[in-house]
Amino acid sequence: MRTYYDTEWGMPVRDEQGLFERICLEGFQAGLSWSTILRKRPAFRLAFSNFDPPAVADFTDDDVARLMDDRTIVRNRPKILACIGNAKATLALRSEGGLSSFVWGYQPDNTPSPRTIADLATTSAESTALAKALRKKGFAFVGPTTMHALMEATGIIDTHLLGSHRRGSSGVWPS
């Protein structure tokens, strides 16, 4: 977890495949711990064709059955189906500028400035709006809390505590 936090969490993710992977993994995380998902991430990448949206969009019922039998990932049919559906929705967004442009379009004008853990929010107006907009585009498992976590993880907002050695490290927001 420390390596993930120190090197990856909060760093900008602007490519379609990277954002698609994060949306899927955040959806799989719902109701579970992030450490569980992070530990299983290599298996998820293998099972979901490295989160290549066109490949995942082509998954069939046989692929769903294969995934439901895969003990190395989270075997939850609604979450598996959501990932496949989200791949199709990602492809549809290409005609509107793409997933990255869409998601980053919800970046707020200002980022939170938490001084303590108690100051950290789990949702925001932007994450609520992003969740609603993604659902309208056909995405699933993209609630406001999940999208807030996505925004934190991908650098759209910087919720590192003021004074943290990581605050501002994304280059998106000043420290």
UniProtKB/TrEMBL annotation:
Keywords: Metal-binding, Zinc. GO terms for molecular function: DNA-3-methyladenine glycosylase activity; metal ion binding. Zn(2+) binds at residue 160. It holds the Pfam family Adenine_glyco. One of its GO terms (biological process) is base-excision repair. PANTHER family: DNA-3-METHYLADENINE GLYCOSYLASE 1 (PTHR30037), DNA-3-METHYLADENINE GLYCOSYLASE I (PTHR30037:SF4). This is DNA-3-methyladenine glycosylase I. The lineage of its organism: Bacteria, Bacillati, Actinomycetota, Actinomycetes, Nakamurellales.
